[in-house]
Amino acid sequence: MSTSWSARPRSVPSRKRSSVIGHILEGITGGWQYRGRLRDLVAQTPASRMLLDQEPSVLSEQGVRALALDFDGVLAPHAADQPLPEVTDWLRRAVAVFGVERVCILSNRPFGPRVDWFATQFPGLRFVSGVRKKPYPDGLKKTGELASVPLSSILMVDDRLLTGCLSALLAGARPLYIRNPYCSFSSHPAKELFFMLLRRCERLFVRLVP
């Protein structure tokens, strides 16, 4: 018995392309809508800012009650399987201050060996998954539900303006922009170069649009 073309499984790649296009369009339209706030965020952020500059106890004093952390660039270079040692120490301090249930990893790649590493080293610390990728605010809304805190008290730490920082603005959370992300050009030169250029294009976009 022959199979018609219409019965063949084409829907998965089509949905994936549609998701990617929607993700890009959300970043552009949302970036346009919040361009003024993103521009101010860049202007107020030192070029040297990195995660280790933010002491968890000080963040708590500033009213932060939960953390949503990007992985690539924020905790380690792109494609790494685990955070850098100094970041691991920072995470231990963050868990001590906020509680493990209020520190979440909100990455567009919530899978692979990194998830296994966290399950071993930080049991109870969750990767937020099963939601639309940043810049959609879904991940932060789920973070608020998991941590049982209002969105306004969640700090989204990200090295990308039009994904993590924009998702924080869309959700009503707090964005923390990392302008000095971790990179390893010796390990992944093409990938690191791509994301370096992407970050620069994002800053140019929010600076140039009227």
Could you provide a short overview of the structure?
The protein is an alpha/beta fold. It has eight helices and five strands.
List keywords for this structure.
210 residues, alpha/beta, Rossmann fold, 49% helix, 9% strand, disordered N terminus
Q: In words, what does this structure look like?
A:
- The chain has helices at residues 11-33, 35-44, 56-61, 85-98, 113-121, 138-147, 161-171, 189-208; strands spanning 66-69, 103-105, 126-127, 154-158, 174-177.
- It has a single domain (45-208), classed as HAD superfamily/HAD-like (Rossmann fold, 3-Layer(aba) Sandwich), CATH 3.40.50.
- The chain has 210 residues and is an alpha/beta fold.
- The termini are far apart.
- It has eight helices and five strands; from the N terminus they run αααβαβαβαβαβα.
- The model is unreliable at 1-7 (pLDDT under 50).
- A five-stranded parallel β-sheet has the order 3-2-1-4-5, sandwiched between helices.
- Helix 1 packs across helix 7 and helix 2 (35-44) packs across helix 8.
pLDDT below 50 for ≥5 consecutive residues: which ranges? 1-7
Structural class: alpha/beta
State the helix count: 8
Predict the CATH topology.
Rossmann fold
The biggest beta sheet reads: 5 strands, parallel
Helix fraction, binned, reads: 40-55%
